[in-house]
Amino acid sequence: MYTQTSFENTAEIYSLLENIKNEYENDIKNVLIKTSPNIYKNPHMIPKLKKIHVNRGLGLAAQNSNFLKKSIEEFTIITGQKPIITRSKKAIAGFKIRTDMELGLTVTLRGKKMYDFFTKLLFFTFAQIRDFRGLSVRSFDKAGNYTLGLKEQLIFPEIEYENIEQIQGLSINLVIGASTPKSHSNTLDRILNGMVLFKFLKFPLNDCGNYEKFSTLSEVNQLWDKKKHLRRKRWSQEETK
């Protein structure tokens, strides 16, 4: 039964869905330009959420038309957009895969649907994960984009337990865009841009705070170089054993 509190919470949720893009455009961009004028000299250099890819591999189960139809309906409910069926580019006899065989689903979200899905991740989906302690910064790739995997679809609020025939996960790739000069276009700068953006958007990076004690970018670079050296040393020791 709905109460006054539940209606207020619902109204607040819809307000969040509407305001997250406005918060970025009107507040976050201005704060970054004022606080870091040497790094972000113009609005085009400020990191932004460009698009979100949502993918699911179905494997040979995609050959079952009923299963594929059910997965497409589920993906449409979760993302708000009908997915594209991904197909194999070549045949692999060892995995019983033929050319142009249906193997998975993918969706690319932009604009309002992208922000709605991102807000749902922040305020609904992560809260449903048991013993959730945040996400690691190590999931950034060399281009500065962030990829995470979810083990089941039940953590999305639109999915009802009674309608689930099989537990399936999905992967989410958050593509971050920024027009950076060549002097600030290396891997570390791209990752730091993503960390700055996620910190303002309240994205739950659990080890992002480790770098707050460093006052300059050079100190962070020294830390990363030290970690790389230790990894190489450990690998060389393992090879000699």
TrEMBL record:
Coiled coil: none
One of the Pfam families matching this protein, by short name: Ribosomal_L5
The keyword Ribosomal protein appears for this protein: yes
Annotated TM spans: none
GO MF annotation: an example: rRNA binding
Gene Ontology cellular-component terms listed: chloroplast; ribonucleoprotein complex; ribosome
Keywords for the protein's UniProt record, in alphabetical order: Chloroplast, Plastid, Ribonucleoprotein, Ribosomal protein, RNA-binding, rRNA-binding
Gene Ontology biological process: translation
Keyword Cytoplasm listed: no
Domain Large ribosomal subunit protein uL5 C-terminal: 103-188
Domain Large ribosomal subunit protein uL5 N-terminal: 42-98
UniProt-annotated location(s): Plastid, Chloroplast
Similarity-based family: Belongs to the universal ribosomal protein uL5 family.
Function: Binds 5S rRNA, forms part of the central protuberance of the 50S subunit.
Quaternary structure note: Part of the 50S ribosomal subunit; contacts the 5S rRNA.
Listed name of the protein: Large ribosomal subunit protein uL5c
Taxonomic source organism: Toxarium undulatum
